Amino acid sequence: MKLPIVAYGDPILRKKAEEIDEDYPNLKELISDMFETMYAARGVGLAAPQVGLPIRLFVIDASPFAEDDEDGEGDPALKDFKKVLINPIIIEEKGEKWGFNEGCLSIPDINEDVIRPSQVVINYLDEDFEEHEVELSGLAARVVQHEYDHIEGKLFVDKLSPLKKAMLKGKLEAISKGMVQVGYKMKFPNPKKKR
Q1: Among all residues, which ones are annotated catalytic?
Q2: pLDDT exceeds 60 at position 192
Q3: 146 belongs to an annotated ligand binding site
Q4: Would you list the domain boundaries of the chain?
Q5: Given a cut of 80, is residue 190 above it in pLDDT?
Q6: Can you tell me the mean pLDDT for 162-190?
């Protein structure tokens, strides 16, 4: 089932998410719904807060980055890079910092260059609650860092310069008011609710 994606401005996107255990209700179904929602919105990652749940869970499928882009520079290592990360902990971010154009399903129609470290070491549980510790680099590291930020209550726009943020202020306000056209279901903040 496709879930509505929470839009910029909703307080849940700013909340640090809570860990879950194997008894979390309907977890397998939630994971399946999150993948379906992500694919329908043509995303490569989706965190639980983006579907209204303040839990430490995100799904990623970076295989679209394996295909050649217009520069012929796809990353074949991402061909089968599909993961469920539960209760992840970034142990280390390292390597050269580099910029890459990022977007977010909760912040449609805004793409900006974001500087992040090129490598990350992350510990997480998979959908069967098996523990993994992996070192990722390049686009795989970036997708994981972007989604990890979501469960920490951070957004990619937080990493932009004050000038860039000021330039985007009007667009961000429009998104929070639902004044945006997207090809997927979104849930916009209720303006009558106190924040």
Answers
A1: 147
A2: no
A3: yes
A4: 5-182
A5: no
A6: 94
Amino acid at 152: E
- Residue 94, annotated as binding a ligand: no
Architecture of domain 5-182: Alpha-Beta Complex (3.90)
The H or E element spanning position 139 is helix 138-151
Number of separate helices (H) and strands (E) present in the chain: 3, 7
Using alpha carbons, list the distances in angstroms from residue 115 to 34, 79, 104, 190: 27, 24, 15, 32
DSSP for residue 7: P
Average pLDDT over residues 115-138: 97
Over the range 140-162, which residues count as b (16 or more CB within 10 Å of their CB) and which as e? bbbbbbbbbbbbebebbbebbee
- Starting at the edge strand found earlier in the chain, the sheet holding 82-104 runs 45-47, 57-61, 82-104, 107-125, 131-137
Q: Which two tokens stand for residue 92?
A: 């280390």
Residue 194 reports pLDDT greater than 60: no
Residue bearing the bigger pLDDT, 24 or 66: 24
